[in-house]
Amino acid sequence: MKETAPNPFINGLWRQNPTFVQILGMCPTLAITNSVQNAIAMGLATAFVLICSNGLIAAIRKHVPKQVRIATYIAIIATAVTVTDYLVKAISISVYKALGPFIPLIVANCLVLERAEGFAAKKPVIPSMMDGAGMGLGFAFGLTCLGTVREVLGAGTFLGIHLFGPNFEPWVLFLLPPGGFISLAIWLLIFASYRERKDRRERARAALLTIQPAEVQS
Amino acid sequence: MTGATTKSAQMIRFLGFVSLLCGVLIVGAHITSQSRIRVNQEEILRESLAQLLPGMTRQVIYIVTPTGKLASAASGESGGKRIFAGFDAGGKFLGVVLEASERGYADVISAMYAYSPGSQTITGFSVLEMKETPGLGNKIGSDPDFLANFKALDTTHPVAAVKHGKKTNPWEIDAISGATISSRAVGRMLAASVQEMAPIIARHRDRIERGN
Predict the structure, then answer these.
(1) What ipTM did this prediction achieve?
(2) Helical H runs in chain B?
(3) Do residue B186 and residue B94 come from a single domain?
C-alpha cells in the first residue's frame, strides 16, 4: 500500500468522506436532509465551523497543556458554532428557521471534535484549515446526496422547482424519518459496493504483479 | 510540589486565555451581526404582512395593553399582543393583521392572519413557524385548497375546522385530509384569537382605520 500523505482537502471530500466512509455526524444527516436547500445550508454551516475551529486549534496547538486540551477544543468549537449561528441569522432568517436547533447542535457533531483531536492538534494551520474545508464540503456533499433523493421522491421537487408536473403523487415517506434511514442505506450501499469493487480490482492487480515473476521463473 | 503548582497555574492561565479569546470572538460576532439581523426580521415581517394584505405599503403597529387599551408601538409600549394595521399607497385602510398560536401535532404553530373589521371576516392566513409533519401537517402553510378557506371566513360564528369535504357553512374550515389535527389546531387558534381580539378592535376601530 502506498502511504504518501494524502492532500487533506481531497482526503476529506472523498477518501475519508464523513458521511459515506467515516459515518460521522449522523444526527443532522438524518434530521435535516428532507430538502436540498436545508442539506446544503447545514453542510456549509458545518464546513465553516470546521475551518474556523481547525484553524484556531492548529494555531495554538503547541501551547495547549495536555490535561486541558478537550476543554480547550470544546470552548473553541462552541465559539465557532455561536459565530456561525449569528452569521446564518444575518444571512437569511428563513434558512435559520428551517435549520432550527441543528445549528447550535453542531457543537455536538462528533466530526468537528474528531478533526480537532485527530488532525488540527498535530498539524500546521493551513493544512488544518484545508482538512476542515475538505471534511466540511465532504459532509455537505453527503447531506446533499441524501437531500436530493428525499426531496425528489418525497416532494417531487429539486431546490423547490417542480420536476414532474401536477399529476405526480409525492412519496411522503421519504420526507419522514424512515425516509432518512432508507436513503442513507441506499447511498451507503452504493458507496460500499463501489469501494469494494475498486479494492478487488487493486488486489487483483497487485496479485498479478507478484505472480508474474514466479511464472517467468518456472 | 512547586513544579505541580506551576503546572496548575499554567493550565488555569491557558484556559483563562482561551475563554478570553472565545468571549471576544462571540461578543464581536454578536455586535457586528445585530443590525443586519434586525433588518432581516423587519423584512420578513413586512413580507408576510404584504402577503396577507395585498397592496399594502404602510403599516402601523399597535400594542394591546394589559388593561385592554391600545398603545402605538412607536410610544415604546411593548409586551402585549400586536395589531398591525395595513394601508395602501393612497392611504386607504386595508385591514388588520393579527398573530395567533396554538399547539399543533408536533409543536406550537404560530401564524398571522388578516382580519377585516368591517365585514368581520378573516381574509388571509399564513404560518410563521411550525414543526408539523413534513408532507402532511405542514401543508397548512402551503396547500392552496386549504388556504382558500381563508378568503372570506366568517367570524360572527365561532370558527371551527371540519373533516375534509364536510364544509357547509362560511365559518367552517375544510381540513386537509391526513392532517386533521393540524387543521383543527388552526381552527382553534383562529377562534380563540378572534374571540379575544375582535372586541378590542371593534372598540378602537376608528382609531385603527385612521392609522394614528
Answers:
(1) 0.82
(2) 2-52, 144-147, 180-203, 205-210
(3) yes
Together in a domain, B135 and B169: yes
- Bridge partners of B86, per DSSP, are B59, B95
A121, A64 Cβ separation under 8 angstroms: yes
The answer on B32 and B78 residing in a single domain is: no
Domain count along chain B: 2
Q: Which of residues 136-155 of A touch B (CB under 8 A)?
A: 154-155
Grid cell of B91 as nine digits: 392611504
pLDDT in tens, B13-56: 999 999 999 999 999 999 999 999 989 888 888 888 888 999 88
Residues 6+ apart with CB under 8 A from B41: A93
Cell of residue A197, nine digits: 469493487
A162-206 pLDDT per residue, tens: 888 888 888 889 988 899 999 999 999 999 999 899 999 999 998
Confidence at residue A144, expressed as pLDDT on a 0 to 100 scale:
96
- Tell me the average pLDDT of chain A: 89
The better pLDDT of the pair B3, B145 is held by B145
Nearest to A76 by CA among A116, A103, A128, A32: A116
Closest partner residue to A90 among B14, B25, B33, by Cβ? B33
Please list, in sequence order, all residues whose beta carbon lies within 8 angstroms of the beta carbon of residue A137, skipping any fewer than 6 positions away: A12, A13, A43, A47
B:59-98 residues touching chain A, CB 8 A cutoff:
none
Range of the domain at B12: 1-51
